[in-house]
Fold this protein.
Amino acid sequence: MTWCRLFAWRALARVALWLIPRRRFRSFELYSLAGAESLSLLEERVGSALDLIGAYDPQRLHEIERDVRRFGIEKVGGDRYDHGFRAHVLSKHWLSEINNTVVALNVVHEATHARIAARGVPYNQATAARIEALCVGQEIAFARRLPGDQQWIVAIEQKLEKPWWNATNQRAKREERLRAVGVPGWLIPLLLGRAGRNVSGQGK
């Protein structure tokens, strides 16, 4: 993607952010690409996750409040960190199916992306594996603080066995998100640009 195309993409995205449903929540801004009614779901699930983090790791919650500015919800796409918006973006479908502990673990993961991106470390095919390992490591560190058995740790460790960060998977997810918000098929290749880099700058 040329710098001109990237700039145009960013400009359009920022204009769109002002036009879509959004609200303040604690120290964050919430926004929705899945309809205004989805903001309540986002607030409920993110709020419960933040409460869980605050209960067992108050310092980490403070860091999340410092590093993440927004939480967003969209129709599809799992979850990811968008460095341009300093936003942890979650999909409505995914958010509706998982429990609060999983949401909290993913907030920890994406907030680690936020911290790394803020330090100027680029996210690309050369750095992705190491960055994702660091983020998963922070999930494990938080999971160790939770009460009960440590079933979460085994599941988290297994995540790295499937490299979701490779170029093919990243491009497929971005295409899925663009189609979900109604972007015409002919425009998608232009917006995707370079297949080997995550346009958002960080995150899965």
